[in-house]
Structure formats: structure tokens, C-alpha cells
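Input (structure):
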């Protein structure tokens, strides 16, 4: 099997530009200076990228575009990526995947929230306990982790209420879509409703992400 021809930095940019319009020579050089990529060099000193370098770049750019992650966090995720592990499943809590509820102490430990911060999030309606303020759904774990990141950046619980209100509106929209199936009450209709909710939720998330990314980029370009 013939050895793959290495790619120049210009060829790499052309391959990535459709998915990442903002990619540039200076951005790739910056990522290299930060130690996130390490392409080989030709005898004349030009960068040479192989298929793994390209995949690594694509992963880094995707994390920046879709999750707005700082390079420090992306660097830690690269360790999992290099091992071929499922990044999303590693990011998500094992408790969440099992669907088991979380106690207050578990939620605080996992998110690093203080008692006051958690109380503020509950009061603002961002996180809703299942029982009093002592038992929480498995999904509250991830929500609490992300809320903590935003609060560390300077936002307050009251600001994050906007996220909860957006979620509530989107949930209402999808529940209207499945209402006829939910009213049917039989097992087949219930299964169809579940499948429809799961597929449409993914579509709404993708749409939400695209619109948010577009709006932020537009604001930054002004």
C-alpha cells in the first residue's frame, strides 16, 4: 500500500474550511505553539501533516466551535482522544447514564458548587430537585457542572435562568409535537412518542447550537 503523501498547511486549511470557515495559517501555528499539535517538518522546514494530524486538528476545532472550550480543557480531552476513548461518554457522568438520582452531597461533590451556589440555582429555577432540595435527577449532575463553569466566569444563578427558560420553551414545543401520540395511551403510541421526542430533541439541539454559534460570531465581527 503506497505511503500517504503529507499535506501542506494550505492543503489542510482547504480540507477543513467547509466545516471551520475561520481556520487560518495563524490559528494552526498558534495551536502548534501551544503544544496541541506537532506536525513533522520537511528537509526545507515546511510543516507536513498526516491523516492523524488532520484528525487531531478537526477534533480541536470542533471542541472550540461546538463547546467554546478553552485550550486547557481541550488539552485534557486530547488525552482521551489519543486513547481512542469516547469523549462524550467520559464527559458525562456514569450516574447520569444509569439514570440514578443524585443526593445533594453527590451533586455538590461532582460539580464543586458550594451549598450557597446550589441554593441560588434552585431558587432561580435553573436546577429543580426531585424531592425538597435533597434529591436530584441524574441530568442535574451535568447541568450543575456546566453552571459552575459559567458562575466561575462571573455569571450568577439569576443570569442562568435564561437557559432554563429556553429549555422550558423548547420542551413545550416538542411535547406539542408528540401530544397526539401521548393521548393514545397504548404501548405502541407511547414508544413512537419516545422515539419522536429523542430524534426531534437532537434536531433542536443542533439547531440551537448553530444559531448560537452564528449569533456569537456575528457579534464578534461587529
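Output (sequence):
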Amino acid at each position: 500500500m503506497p505511503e500517504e503523501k503529507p499535506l501542506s498547511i494550505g492543503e489542510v486549511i482547504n480540507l477543513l474550511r467547509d466545516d471551520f470557515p475561520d481556520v487560518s495559517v495563524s490559528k494552526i501555528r498558534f495551536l502548534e505553539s501551544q503544544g496541541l499539535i506537532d506536525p513533522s517538518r520537511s528537509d526545507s522546514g515546511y510543516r507536513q501533516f498526516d491523516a492523524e494530524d488532520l484528525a487531531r486538528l478537526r477534533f480541536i476545532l470542533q471542541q472550540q466551535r461546538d463547546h467554546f472550550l478553552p485550550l486547557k480543557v481541550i488539552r485534557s480531552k486530547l488525552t482521551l482522544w489519543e486513547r481512542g476513548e469516547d469523549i462524550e461518554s467520559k464527559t458525562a457522568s456514569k450516574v447520569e447514564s444509569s439514570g440514578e438520582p443524585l443526593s445533594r452531597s453527590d451533586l455538590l461533590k461532582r460539580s464543586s458548587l458550594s451549598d450557597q451556589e446550589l441554593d441560588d440555582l434552585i431558587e432561580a429555577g435553573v436546577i429543580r430537585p426531585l424531592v425538597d432540595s435533597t434529591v436530584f435527577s441524574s441530568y442535574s449532575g451535568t447541568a450543575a457542572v456546566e453552571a459552575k463553569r459559567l458562575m466561575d466566569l462571573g455569571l450568577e444563578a439569576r443570569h442562568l435562568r435564561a437557559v432554563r427558560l429556553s429549555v422550558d420553551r423548547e420542551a413545550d414545543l416538542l411535547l406539542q409535537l408528540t401530544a397526539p401520540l401521548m393521548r393514545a395511551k397504548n404501548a405502541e403510541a407511547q414508544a413512537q412518542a419516545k422515539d419522536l421526542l429523542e430524534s426531534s430533541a437532537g434536531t433542536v439541539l443542533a439547531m440551537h447550537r448553530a444559531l448560537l454559534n452564528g449569533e456569537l460570531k456575528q457579534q464578534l465581527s461587529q
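Notes: DSSP finds eleven helices and four strands in the chain. Confidence is low (pLDDT under 50) at residues 89-98.
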